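Hi,

I'm pasting everything inline rather than attaching a file, because the server keeps stripping attachments. The sequence lines come first, and each chain or strand is labelled.
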Amino acid sequence: MITTITIFIPLAGAILMLLMKNADERTTRYTALGVAAVPLLLSLYIYLAHGSDLGAASLTQSFDWVSSLGIGYRVGLDGLGFGMFFLSALLTLIAVVASWDVHTNLRQYYAILFIAELGMLGVFAAQDLILFYVFFEVTLIPMYLLVGIWGDENRRPAAIKFFIYTFFGSTVMLAGFLALGILSGPNFSIEALNAGGGLSRAAQIAIAVPILVGLLIKVPAVPFHSWLLDVYVSSPISTNVVLSGILPKLGTYGLIKIAIPLLPQGVEPFLPYLAAFGVLNIIYGAFVAFMQTDLKALVAYSSIGTLGFILLGIASGNALGINGAVMQQVTHGLYSALLFILVGIIASRAGTRRIADLGGLAARMPWAGGLLALGAFAAMGVPGLAVFVSEFMSIMGGYTAFPVQGILAALGILLGAMYLLYMLQRVIFGPTKQPALAEAADAGPMEMAAIVPLALLLVVLGIFPSLLINVQRPAVEVVLAAIGGS
Amino acid sequence: MVTAQTFVGLLPEIVVFLFSMLVLMIGVFSPRATGLTAGLAAFGALATFVTAVVLLAVGFEGSFFGDAYVVDGFALYFKLIVAGSAFFTVLAASRWSGRTGDAPEYLTLILSVAVGAMLLVSMRDLFGVFVAIELATIPSYALVAFDRTRRESAEGGMKYLLTGMIASSILLYGIVLIYGISGSAELADISRTFTGQLSPVALLGMVLLISGFAFKVSAAPFHFWTPDAYQGAPTSAAAFLSVAPKAAIFAVLLRIFLEGMPEAAPSWTAVAAVLAIVTMFIGNLFALRQSNVRRMLAYSSVAHSGYILVAFAALQGGGVERGVQAVLIYSAAYALMNLGAFFVIDLVGEEAKSYNGLFKTRPGVALSMAIFMAALVGIPPLSGFWGKAWIILAGAQSGSILTYVAVGALVINSVLSVPYYFGILRNMAFEEPVKGVEEPTGTGAVKLSVYILAIATTLFLFFIGPLSALAGASGLL
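And the predicted assembly:
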């Protein structure tokens, strides 16, 4: 019950937002904050009360939806999804805090953001293929509207491109889901379908192809990524938080939760390629990020790049790699949200995002500059920060299964360090080039409230990764049992 | 032998026919009472709907007139769709038809189409099928040409009439050939002819029959009358014609295939698959180029005929039962979303520009239109999604490569359709309002229908369980 309540509170919040017709801006913002805090507090409660007990889906609820086909409303939380469930609630709250650049139609903005939150929470709690798909798509139109209405001048083509690409991916994936469910039963319960649902290897392969393609477009894995840059760059900052922090994980989570355990034999021949896709993401992301002149574009490519570690970890098929991948989903969300918010703060002060025009932030804005450095260090995988743990586990896992890909991924870390340090050198140090920056104030209390929790979590999870890993490990073992690995 | 049972079986048709005559009579004696005629027509459609619901609820079944006319769950289901669509159409047409001064005639024509369509779904005899199709089509020529203030209306009506006549003759020719070779027009007898290796005459008859039907459901390459007819027709007529008679024609085609030619399935599923692929691509590619919403929806209805034909292609192997369900579910889902989308034209206008900034000026209408557009794309959990999902399910079970290809084409076409449906959404959400492009003609009753349809389209996720159970127990097969 608590799972369902947590998922649908944002819907109530969205309706509340639309009903508050006469509220002024201040009241609207505080109400939205209040609404966004509820799912976060509930998931915090779940963590404290049930965190050690998330091997198989618990806190479940299930109703028959279409009983003749075994489709049901089945939700529940397991360790695979819980981290992202929590992060969805957290990043929505952060996005509400960070929505200082949105001034027009604020109530509608929050209402749409909450609908997106409903979809995200739902995906990470769904235990039924059709329900998973429904929630998966529920995020789509809100994101289209958030970018298309509140983005920058290039927003409209970016928004429709985003929609068409990801809708294509998810429709292809749907075809795979439907074939999987109808041919193995019919049954659409994820739990019951574990370990192949009695399909032959050939059938599994035929079904795995559309599901993998759909999920990889969503991630996006590198040859499918061309929709991403425009939409990342055009979004308002608070949308970026969700867009980069959560949405790619819908794809990677689908791989871990559905593709791998439900179609073990079907996915197996593609695993080396999945690992190669991961490496391609890491290296391509690093090279292209290196060439960017726009700070936001650089962060966007860095964000694509480090998604590669998740793919590598998933492909490894061993405990280390999958644990690393599940954790990297969360840590990647933390650091990329942090960096995107900081880019927004810096750009609002300097009036530009061109790296060449920035400089001397450390002197003028020590907090913002310092946290930018922290975020960049996190992205590099510096030990002591959470991303290090997850990337290290993914690479070690990947190396065990596919040595070549593992070594190349480790090389990717070096490349990442190069472009991030080069960026820091130009942005933080040196003389102040932008006249606007000379009198710039440091990040204010509102801005600090958005970034400090993320930075803190990066540090805390870096020192105590077991806080997260203990929750996810039992569920990862279930996946390993399904694929017969160790 | 005509018994009391026969009257009960024909009750929905009798009710709607009596009301259509009543409406016409009132028009003759008190032509100014437009409110009364519209109210009576709406009540008649509703009463028909209720009659069909009662028959379905008590599980009424029977076949009459020497097995030429059958009332089963399947037929009653489609009668519900026809009567329900007629109800909303009459509601939406009440004000507009009142202003033309010919409200009784217009409303009678709508109810007459409904009579034809409702008879059609019960026919088990090819000549009965032909008569019922004509009964549904001839009033619809007049409906399309009804708007005397617009030239396009007469033009559309004329085109529809000429092509419709050709289609009817082709259909009749096919029926006669099949009758000639089977010695009977009853589906049960025909099924004995369509076994084993088909004779050339039987094959020709089948091809002509399918071609005639393809005309009627505007499947490509027989679709070219559709955009002109729907653009010219009064909005409510276009909405009704794109939903009710079409659903009935698909239903009877399903019956002919499954009861009359079950053993020829490999041939007609292949034809359906090819027709489906061509129709989907043509409908969507042409819809992409339209800036007139009416015309865009006309091409969209062509594309949706293609989607339904994929379900026909899946009627083989393990996909037969699911394919029948898919046609039933899709027809209901499509009726809700397409009626709604057409009615919005009466509230806003037919130029895409009229939709600019609608979320700011009229949020309720804009949200409804957004729901219809998203449902037509197939975004879950709206009604259109369930229709498409069932078609893919049936396709996956069919075990035929050609059907898999058709399902793949359906997936691609769903994506192809995004730009034009979302073009409306973009105008409504992203653009600034422009004043004075068009004056909306719709009124309170239209708005009410739009809201009800939008809510039903959204809440379809709660009906899908019972609906699929109903479809599973429909009695066909």
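Residues 151-182 of chain B form the longest helix (32 residues).

If the labels don't parse on your end, tell me and I'll reformat.
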